Amino acid sequence: MSGYYEFDPEVVREFLGKKLSSRNRKDLDDISEKTRVSLKSCRRQFDNVKHVFKTVEDMMGSLVENIRTLFLISEELAKKYAAIVFIANNRFETGKKKLHYLTFEDFAFCADQMMSHWTSRARGVKTLTSEDIDTDLDRDFLQALRDVKELSDYVEDHKSLVLRTLTGLSDRAFTDIEQNFKNISKVIVGIGSGLSHSKESRDLFLDLVEKFIEPCRQAMWTKDDVEAFLNAYLDTSHMVEHFRSNPQMAKVWDRYMVMITACIVQMYHK
Questions:
Q1: Cβ contacts of residue 264 below 8 Å, gap of 6+?
Q2: Other Cβ atoms within 10 Å of 195 Cβ, number
Q3: How many whole angstroms separate alpha carbon 208 and alpha carbon 148?
Q4: How many Å apart are CA 63 and CA 170, to the nearest integer?
Q5: Listed residue (134, 81, 110) closest to 207, CA to CA
C-alpha cells in the first residue's frame, strides 16, 4: 500500500495547511503546472491526504501508529502523513509569501518536534484525559507559557550569563547580541507567552520568520550562530532567579525552547 500513498513533497507543500475542500481540489491544475507533476497524480495525492486526515483526526493514541496500522504504510511515510494531519488540524499558517522558501521537509520536521514536545503525550506529561488526542496542542502547557513573560524582568542578568557563556560566535552575531539582547529576548518570550491565543499559535511559523529569523539574517548571523545562541539562551535561563525559584515553570520553558530551537535552526536556510 505504501506505493499508492507515496507523494511528491513539492505537491503536498502547495496545499499544506489549506482546507482540503472541493474548491481547493479544483485548483490542482495550477499545482500540476507549477510542480510538473501530472494532474491525475496531484488529484490522487490530494485525495489521499484528505482521506487520511478525515480518518485519523479524532482518533485517540499515537497519530503515527494509527496511520501506519490503518493504511499499512511504512513508519517513515506515516510520520510524513502525521505531520500533514497535525498542521491541518492546528490550522498553522504556511502559505504566506515570507514562508514560501520553506519546504515540506521543514514543516514536517517542525510538526514532528511539536508532537514530541507540545502535545499532551509529550515528554514529561504523565496524566492524560479522554479528551487528549495526538493531533492537539497541550492547552495546559500553552496556558502555563503565559507566565514566561516574567523572564523579561531579569533580562540584564540573563544577558550577562549568555554573553559569558557564548563561544565560537561570529563577531557580527556577538556584537548584535550584545547590543540587542533585550529585543531578541522580548521576541522569544513574546512568541511563547502568546501561544495560548489561537491566532498567535496559528501564526507561529510566520512569527518565527518575521520576528527572529529575518532580523538574524539581516544582522548576518550564520546558522551556527543561531544554534549556539539559542542553546546558550536556554541553558543560562536556568540560572535566572525566575526559574531557579520555580522548577515547574522551568520545565514548561524547556518544552517551549527545545522545540523552537530545533525548528528555527531547521528553518534557517543558508
A1: 208, 212, 213, 226, 230
A2: 22
A3: 17
A4: 41
A5: 110
Q: What's the predicted TM-score (pTM) here?
A: 0.93
Tens digits of residue pLDDT in 204-259: 999 999 999 999 999 999 999 999 999 999 999 999 988 998 999 999 999 999 99
Three-state secondary structure of the chain: CHHHHCCCHHHHHHHCCCCCCHHHHHCHHHHHHHHCCCHHHHHHHHHHHHHHHHHHCCCCCCHHHHHHHHHCCCHHHHHHHHHHHHHHHHCCCCCCHHHCCCCHHHHHHHHHHHHHHCECCCCCCCCCCCCCCCCCECHHHHHHHHHHHHHHHHHHHHHHHHHHHCCCCCHHHHHHHHHHHHHHHHHHHHHHHCCCCHHHHHCHHHHHHHHHHHHHHHCCCCHHHHHHHHHHHHHHHCCCHHHHCCHHHHHHHHHHHHHHHHHHHHHCCC
Contact criterion met (CB below 8 Å) for 51 and 70 = no
pLDDT in tens, 129-185: 445 567 889 999 999 999 999 999 999 999 999 999 998 899 999 999 999 999 999
C-beta of residue 93 within 8 angstroms of C-beta of residue 17: yes
For residues 102, 115, 228, 191, the Cα torsion angle rounded to the nearest 10 degrees is: 80
Residues contacting residue 74 through CB under 8 Å, at least 6 positions apart: 2, 68
Q: Which amino acid is at 247?
A: P
